[in-house]
């Protein structure tokens, strides 16, 4: 018996056999024997010390430069630094840095809450659900966003609830998607604060709340102490806006526009992670810029694999997927953004099957 999952413009038959679940076990043995799961302490300690020194230098420069519009460039630098620190916190949350879970948890908490202003507990809860069922309807929180619709059902429901103006915006949501990212930084801070003050379960709530309070209140106090109010507000808009854009541009290409999984379809682990993920090809500089998120397939299959091993693992995993007839999707960075924008815009217009990925259609049209 098979389930049918639509993706890349073709029907993908997912067989429920005794062999399919063993495909990942075989791959895991290959990856394990290659040594690609071993920890890279030198790499990560260098990055941990480096980002702390860089942040200290940027904040010192901010104070020394003083009350001037040149601080907008400092805001841009801080946006990049905070995003790179958040990516390092992502690695710690996935147990990539240390063997000890406790060390990884505390590292992620310090990096996320104290340095970036994002709740590690809130993010971990959300991100764990995403990794368990990427792009699965009713299970993946990353396709249940308040301002972007990824299925015709979401479009019709929101259009009926909020009226014709919202319906028009949804019909053009591809055009608004990237500008909306300017608000993502503010939304991440707000969601973090909301989680730590809510009654929802949260480990180390006092620690997270304390770190967030120090980070957010201390940062705002420093900004308004050094800058006059007008410059301070513009500085915060630039820093938060660019932080949100950088974060969004790093995460959006990974799954948006890939097949969505119906709630009643069950897939084995290998196919559940590979078929719904997209890699972004590029140089080692892109690896740094995207924090390793450009190897989304490898990351979803082996979340605890240290970031510097993902590039090497990609060749082995690509060959394995080809040999086992599992579609391995890889594209360029700018092409991925075009795919994402076109996909969500056409969903808003009600013109496409949400389980249909535009990548193969583009290639077939060439």
Describe this structure in words.
- With 366 residues, this protein is mainly alpha-helical.
- The protein folds into 2 domains: 2-38 and 268-365, no CATH class; 41-145 and 175-252, no CATH class.
- It has helices at 20-33, 41-65, 71-93, 101-116, 120-132, 152-162, 164-171, 173-180, 184-197, 205-226, 229-251, 269-274, 284-289, 296-301, 310-323, 333-349, 358-365, and strands spanning 2-7, 10-15, 278-280, 329-331.
- The strands form 2 sheets. The chain has a two-stranded antiparallel ribbon with strand order 1-2. The chain has a two-stranded parallel sheet with strand order 3-4.
- Strand 1 and strand 2 form a beta hairpin.
- Helix 2 (41-65) packs antiparallel against helix 3, helix 3 (71-93) runs parallel beside helix 11 and helix 9 crosses helix 10.
- The protein is globular, with a radius of gyration of 21 Å.
- The two termini are 35 Å apart.
- The model is unreliable at 1-19 and 354-366 (pLDDT under 50).
SS field, number of helical segments: 17
- Record the strand order, biggest sheet: 1-2
Overall pLDDT level: 86
Largest sheet: 2 strands, antiparallel
Helical fraction: 55-70%
Low-confidence stretches: 1-19, 354-366
Anisotropy-based shape: globular
Helix and strand arrangement:
Blueprint: E1 2-7, E2 10-15, H1 20-33, H2 41-65, H3 71-93, H4 101-116, H5 120-132, H6 152-162, H7 164-171, H8 173-180, H9 184-197, H10 205-226, H11 229-251, H12 269-274, E3 278-280, H13 284-289, H14 296-301, H15 310-323, E4 329-331, H16 333-349, H17 358-365
Parallel strand pairs: 3-4
Antiparallel strand pairs: 1-2
Helix pairs in contact: 2-3, 3-4, 3-11, 4-10, 5-9, 6-7, 7-16, 8-16, 9-10, 9-11
